[in-house]
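[Meeting: bench + compute handoff]

Bench side (C.D.) handed over the final construct sequence. Compute side (W.E.) agreed to return the predicted structure before the next meeting so the bench team could plan truncations. Sequence as handed over:
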Amino acid sequence: MEELDLKDFLSYLKKYLLALIIAPIVAALGILYYDTSVKTPLYEASSQVALIQSESSSAAATLNEINANQKLTSTYSVIAKSKVVLEQVIKELSLNVAPDVLARSIKVSTITDTTILKITATSQNPEESAAIANSVANVFANKTDLIKTLDNVAILETAETPEKVANNTTLRDAAIAILVSLFAVAGIAFVVYYFDDTVKYSENLEENVGMPIVGKIIKSDIKLKDGDSEILIKKFPKSVVSESIRSLRTNLQFTSLDKKIQTLHITSSVAGEGKSFVAANLAAAFAQAGQKVLLVDCDLRKGRQHLIFHKSNSNGLTNLLADYVSKRDDYIQKTNIENLSLLTRGSSIPNPSEVLASEKNKDLIKKLKKDFDLVIFDSAPVGAVADPVIMSNLTDETIVVARDGKTPRTALAVTKDTLAKTGAKVAGVVLNDIDRKIGHYYYGDYYGDKK
């Protein structure tokens, strides 16, 4: 994959906007439910014990002796949690727990630069936590015979019954859960983005695909039902899709200022990229501009222009080529768009590539160029058959339709190389179905989606 573009990734991340909103909410609610309904509340109480060291034989304690005393304090911390101490605590408080289990609920720490021990007990019962902390301190203080280096153990502070729950960390846990969920969604998005081989809208799109971008077709908010016309440029002339189709028409007119385009070939890399939709609407756009246009469906296997225009497919291109080219007017059908005619693909045949490469087809194209200002050929995808390679060499310009987030980058690269090897004149790529929330496309902001 090419070098990561942070700006492109941030734009791509907008696809996950809903997940970025929902995930933190769910995570926070989950933590709230766990902390309030599942998590057991615990209480902590602490007592403090001062360890009074036996006097040194010298007149003044040295620095080494002070350091030694502080190290011994750590040893006393272990003794405070020893089995002999905890067994006595269990006996005094009548606790139904083993010494090793009780030890896990007791924490003994030293206050920095002192010989004072802080004994903290944790329990589900606030009164019990205070009782355990005080009992450990008292038992430890009475076991001075175990600690020969001590003159005395003084209890400085007794534990009081706590009022607040010690493990109430809902706010902290919720904040952590929110951050983790955000990073998780962003991480998943990054992995998908990084390993996604599809062509995606970006400011560096031309550089990424290695071909000029002659058009960007914005995804429509218009919901079509079965049987509805796909010629949006006629039905919704002010929609964002119609504006982007007209922009494509203008760009194509400027690609060849010295020589007028008379035949335009439209193909794609794989199926499902919307080439037939683009071809039909682009043909209508040129017709609306006053040109006499013919749309020819030369996808002889799966062409669907007859479905888009609701026309019969019983007599189309294959039938015409089986007949006499001079009878072409009998096969060309008028559409409900002024200046636009249609030649459907016709009956299925076993050898489409041979038919398209025939001298008869070449002769037909020459005659159609005389009959119409512009002839647009909608052919099969390059990656499927040889048909589009043949047609690209019989027409003035070829445009390749790619679908945002759908067309594999590798497939588009193969299409580019295949057409280049045959000497086809490729005007560029049309990126179809761009999400305007990601693309920030001009027409989406300027025109809106007026129907």
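W.E. noted at the follow-up: The longest helix spans residues 170-195. C.D. will use this when planning the next construct.
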